[in-house]
Amino acid sequence: MRNKVIIGNWKMHKNIDEAVTFCKSFKKYSNEMKKHNVLVGVCAPYIDLASIAKYSKDMIIGAQNCHYEDRGAFTGEISHSMLKNIGIKYCIIGHSERRKYFNETSNECNKKIKVLLEDNIIPVYCVGETLEEYEANNTKKVVEKQIKEGLKDLTTKDFDNFVIAYEPVWSIGTGKSASTEIAESVCKYIRDLVAKLISKEASDKVIIQYGGSVKTNNAYDYLHLPDVDGVLVGGASLEVDSFKELASKAL
Ligand code: PGA
Predict the structure, then answer these.
(1) 244 CA from centroid of ligand 1 (Å)
(2) Is the separation of the CB atoms in 114 and 145 below 8 Å?
(3) For residue 149, what is the domain's CATH number?
(4) CB-based burial label for 95 (10 Å; 0-12, 13-18, 19+)
């Protein structure tokens, strides 16, 4: 049985004080949820991480990106080993906002994923099509390319702790969530791809999330689909009470 994994992506929200306050009032709840095989937590801005990394034993604490080199002349970047050094256990890779605004490619994501796995940090690899690609009926083609490039050279063992998030770009921050039929069909397609490219064992283990305008009123529907093991949540993860309410829909 796969765990349910619910991750809040705070994006560029919350200063250190706000992040600490959130985690303090969230940790009891997330510990309780663990007993039901539901893992919950947040991926916070870099500046918050050193102050909230200590909550990693209570809840998911992750970064939203990393650099694949250990160190070097990369002004403004944070390396995977710096994240490891402060005890970070998860890292979002290839979010559509990074692909769009910072020109990240799936090949770069692959480099990041490999170094994170070496550091025992769980990648949350994001894939998904744009509105144009969706309207042209190219969802599966686009996702397949992102998966093939992002997961290149990985082995079954790498999927002991691995999250893939399917997030149609047209559903992120728009209030237009994908139907449960679309979410299940693309998440199943991704699972079958993992079976084909890596192994059946890897496809049984990998956690696949849906993301894009997940709210308290639709979370239940996604969280109980056969091939959807969790959700990646933007806007609805910023308030403690409503995020708890959303995550409780996994039960
Ligand atoms: P949203 O964002 O829930 O605000 O649509 C999701 C995401 O970007 O991961």
Answers:
(1) 16
(2) no
(3) 3.20.20.70
(4) buried
Ligand 1 neighbourhood includes 44 CB (under 6 angstroms): no
Structure tokens at 125: 């690899």
The model's pLDDT over 207-251, given as tens digits with 9 standing for 90+, comes to 999 999 999 999 999 999 999 999 999 999 999 999 999 999 999
Based on the structure, what is the number of domains in the chain?
Answer: 1
Q: Which of 232, 237, 242, 246 to mutate to test the pocket of ligand 1 (most atoms within 8 A of CB)?
A: 232
251 and 220 Cβ atoms separated by less than 8 Å: no
| Whole-angstrom distance, CA of residue 91 vs CA of residue 196 | 25
Q: What is the pLDDT of residues 10-29, one digit of tens each?
A: 999 999 999 999 999 999 99
pLDDT in tens, 113-146: 999 999 999 999 999 999 999 999 999 999 999 9
pTM, 2 dp: 0.98
Q: Which domain holds residue 31?
A: 4-250
DSSP 8-state secondary structure symbol assigned to residue 113: H
